[in-house]
Amino acid sequence: xxxxxxxxxxALKTLKKQMLKAGLFQEMKRRVAYEKPSVKRKWKQTAARxxxxxxxxxxxxxxx
Length: 64
Prior knowledge:
Elements lengths: L7 H15 L1 H9 L4 H27 L1
């Protein structure tokens, strides 16, 4: 990323968006403290459910 005309605020905003989209903040939050295996399993199940719902919505939208 290149900063033009000393526009640091805009560059930071863009960087933050990219990091959010990549899930970096969630990953950092998860690694801060130890997670019990049961909590880790629930988190994975929730993520899988969310991914499945998103795929179903995409399929419904494409079939119309």
